[in-house]
Amino acid sequence: MVTVQYDGHVSLIEGLDTRPTLPAPFTSDTVDKYSRGGIPLTVVGDKAYLYSDLGDGSYLVPTGLLARLLHKPHMDRPTIKRNTESIVLSNNLALNPSLYIYQARAIQTALRKKRCVISIPTGGGKSWVIEELCRVLGKVLVLVPTKLLLYQMQEQLRVWSPGLIGDGHYDIGKDITIAIPDTICNRESDPLLRAWLACIPALIVDECHTFSCPSGTIISSLMRGTQYRIGLSATPCMDNLLEGLIGALEYVVGEQDLIASGHILAPVSYTHLTLPTNREV
Known about the structure:
- This protein is an alpha/beta fold.
- It has helices spanning 31-35, 66-70, 101-113, 126-137, 147-156, 181-186, 191-199, 214-222, 240-245, 255-260, and strands spanning 3-6, 10-14, 26-27, 42-44, 47-49, 52-53, 58-62, 79-82, 115-119, 140-143, 163-166, 169-170, 176-179, 202-206, 228-233, 248-252.
- The chain is globular and about 85 Å long.
C-alpha cells in the first residue's frame, strides 16, 4: 500500500519500492536558481529531476505531478492524506448561465481536476472564467504578470473590491486578491505575508506560461494550504516545471473552433504598398 500525504506545495509519497519516473525539466547548472523556492530536486548526471529521494522508501514530488504518479502500476490503490483544510463545493453547484459552453466546461474541468492548466485563445474570455472561479471558490489569490493586467483584473473583479499587491499596493488579507508575482517575492520575508499565503485555499495564475520561473517556485512553496491551483493562458507552453507547480494541461479551447462558432473574429492581415510616382519637375 502506498501512502500520499500532501499540502499545497509538495507530496510525501511513502511505500514505493522504486524511484518515481519523472522527466527532467532543466540542466543542473540552473538548479540553484530554481531550488530557492524549495522545489524537490534530484540531480542525476547533468539533469535535475522533479523529486527528492529521502532514502527510506519515500519521496517528495511537486503536487502538480501527482496525476502522473497516481497512474503508475505501483500506485493503483494509494491512501491519500491531506495536511490542509479542504474547500467543500456543493453537489448542486450552478454556474453563471451567461457563460458560453466552452467557458463553463473549462470551469468544470478546473474544479474537478483541482490542479490543471486551461488554454483559451486571446479574446475567448479568460477573465470571465477567472471571475466565475473566484465566485465559486470564495478565497483566491489571482496572479498576473504585469501592472496593466493588475488593473484590468481589478476592474473585472470589482464586485469583490479585491486587494492589490503590486505597483505600490500591498493589501493582504482580503478574500480575493490580485498580485504581481515579483512583488510577492520582494516581500517574501514578511511574516504576515507568509502566514496569509499559507492559508489561501485557491491560486489562479493568469498568463501561466510566465509562472515557470524562480518567482513561481518561491510563491508555490509559500502557499502550503492551497487545494486548487489553476493556470490559464492563450499560449500555455507547457514544461515539466510548470506542470509541477500547477498541473497538467487538461482543457484546450481551439482558436479555429471559436472563429467557426463566431465567438471571436478571424485575424485579418493588411499589406501596405507604396507605389512609385512619376512626377515631372
